[in-house]
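Question (not urgent): is this output format expected?
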Amino acid sequence: MAADLSQLVKAYDVRGVVPDQWDEPLAELFGAAFVQVTDASAIVIGHDMRPSSPGLSRAFARGAAAQGVDVTEIGLCSTDQLYYASGALNLPGAMFTASHNPAQYNGIKMCRAGAAPVGQDTGLAQIRELVEGWTDSGAPAPATQAGTITQRDTLEDYAAHLRSLVDLTSIRPLKVVVDAGNGMGGHTVPTVFAGLPLTVVPMYFELDGTFPNHEANPLDPANIVDLQKRVREESADLGIAFDGDADRCFVVDEQGEPVSPSAITALVASRELAKHGGKGTIIHNLITSWSVPEVVEENGGTPVRTRVGHSFIKAEMARSGAIFGGEHSAHYYFKDFWNADTGMLAALHVLAALGGQEGPLSGLVAQYDRYTGSGEINSTVADQAGRLAAIKAAYEGQEGVELDELDGLTVTSADWWFNVRPSNTEPLLRLNAEARDEATMTKVRDEALAIIRG
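Got this back:
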């Protein structure tokens, strides 16, 4: 019987528990399938600091090389460093990471040459089909001549590329606390920040895929408590937290208060628009704040609203020629970075903006943070479709209320909006609400939750 990989192959990547759901022999098959689907003659591979990553990565390389494909291994890297290598070398790439998931998980984020995404509709479903077939019939026949496997260090080149995109040479000296969460930020930050007028206070820079201090998911408030405390203790100008594979960054201000990813999206959008002469398209997903399209328009740009998820954002970036895109989850996408997401480049923009003026970060971001949001609230729901239908029935036809179903259900009024989306992988409904004031947001949030939770 062919293996059923439905629990392992997700919408955008491969992710599961090692060795229960996948192991090195399966990784080898994924390597063979990846090169067949991408029709590659050469690929680049990187991995994070998880204990299982080197072995899985090398197995994938063996599977690819057996098909006659030359493999460049860049070793330990952040996900955006792998995207850099894919873009700079113009090769399909594979990154071994499970991002912010617990230590027993691992996964593969794959891209075509130039960091173009590989998702369910762009090759991932075909890769799964091949691997499932081979688990039944045996591995594919090797090529008459195997490819080579060579090593290459891209860290310095990656850092230099990022620094070429943001001018930090004339900023005032800043003190920044960086929480790497024992993830790949501990590997990339020292090189990227080298030579800049920054005093870096490192937290949890030791690479440790067992995450001994806290989960490497800065979107969970529990995981930035240490950073908030340290920023206040150090009287720092700001704090930055990275997730496990360091492709997302989360910012706290000088008082240790979290800065919403929507405010960061708006701030970076205004800087990217200025860089492009006040013209350009900016992508934002439908649960970023109203502040984002407002700031984009005020700065001469064109906001484009999309579904949630990096494959949708990257596709829309390519289609529209957008110069920048941002998500509520602290993923930031740049045209100058092959339309791929890089939290490090967003962090450099924040440092440049803060260091280019005299005020504190809280004052700087206030202009970009205009509304009150609920944050994402998850509810376990057995009948997702039924609950969504109940919400639609409750609000449909109300005066001054608009509904759309671009992604889940969005309900919008003059003073508030909320969105409810089903999870792709779990029996959850995700609620995000925003309003012009706290009282209205609370009322709207609680009304929606009452229907969701029945």
